[in-house]
Write a structure and sequence with these properties.
- The structure is a homodimer.
- The first copy, chain A, is α/β, with parallel strands linked by helices.
- Chain A has one domain: 3-Layer(aba) Sandwich (Rossmann fold).
- Chain A contains 6 helices and 5 strands.
- The mean pLDDT of chain A is 96.
- Chains A and B meet through helix 4 and helix 5 of A and helix 4 and helix 5 of B.
- Chains A, B: It is an enzyme of class 1 (oxidoreductase).
- Chains A, B: This is General stress protein 14.
- Chains A, B: Pfam families: Flavodoxin_2.
- Chains A, B: Keywords: Oxidoreductase.
């Protein structure tokens, strides 16, 4: 099956300490070797983004996947920095900025809290979708297509107190990666 | 009038290049000299947050103001980093983390795009309130009270092409600061 060019941006600030995000990326690397995976924490531990290099990666991509753990109901600071620096006026937006036009954006994210907490009645007071307008508005301004998300909750640091629990987090993370690949295959043919 | 202890965290990544946020902070400094103003871009140009120092500032405060320009419909990366690092499990949240309990959180932010664009029918497709669930959920998790926001739109970099336009941005920014002080006085007595 011919997939479009896929760029996966990992926004975790410390992948070495991660289970879920690390497992998702490893699974994607095995199952989707043609995708380009960018690990921001390896490239930019000092938060100094190489704007030109990152813009070139975006230009090559048909589908852009943002892979991140949700920190304080938002993307990690490092991913925000990547976006602030790379999505520049005249490149991604503004009257002459149309370099991302027509590209598809997919979110792939995890939360420490279980999915059930994300509801009006739950501990968070909001559904997970209510935290996504910023990405959808970004797509709108940059003329990208918001092409959905894959989400896994309940993969917290605090819940890794035994080898069994770590294995369980790895297992749901592998399934997450397979769900993401399924979505990518579907939108590759639209 | 006795105001409670107010901590103002400036999240702009480059205040020297700012008009609106700089003017707001200067006005607050003049009119509200008892408030503690923290400029993250001066303290942490390398994004390396002094967690202990920042937690001490939070402990002293009754009211915490986050002052920032909206970048990509979110807080700037530097403010996100401050929050990721400072709001730690066992300090701000978790079964033994109640150090922010009862404190009030106020948002004070600006957007480059005019306020009218922030509507369901407008260019952004969302109201400004639809971008705020992350702050409200943060308050909920940290047992803080979300105490409202002061907002000014239309203060973009692109719209500073003449001395008159810069003066206009300064003027709305001063008014913004006065509206913020009014809100702070009101919630100081609740």
């Amino acid at each position: 099956m011919n997939m479009k060019n896929i760029l996966i941006i990992s926004g975790h600030t410390d992948l070495a300490a991660s289970v879920a995000n690390k497992t998702i990326l490893e699974t994607l690397n095995e199952r989707l070797p043609e995708a380009e995976i960018v690990k921001l924490d390896e490239l930019y531990p000092d938060f100094k983004i190489d704007v030109e290099a990152e813009q070139q990666k975006l230009l090559r991509a048909d589908i852009i996947v943002l892979q991140f753990p949700v920190f304080w109901y938002s993307a990690p600071s490092l991913l925000e920095r990547w976006m602030e620096e790379t999505f520049r006026h005249g490149f991604s937006h503004g009257s002459t900025g149309d370099k991302l036009k027509g590209k598809k954006l997919v979110l792939s994210f995890t939360t420490g809290a279980p999915e059930a907490m994300y509801s009006r009645e739950g501990a968070m007071g909001y559904t997970i979708d209510e935290f996504l307008p910023c990405y959808k508005a970004t797509c709108r301004l940059c003329q990208m297509e918001f092409s959905g998300y894959v989400y896994t909750g309940g993969v917290s640091y605090g819940n890794r107190t035994s080898p069994e629990l770590i294995e369980q987090q790895k297992s749901v993370s592998e399934k997450h990666a397979l769900r993401l690949i399924e979505l990518l295959e579907k939108i590759s043919h639209r």
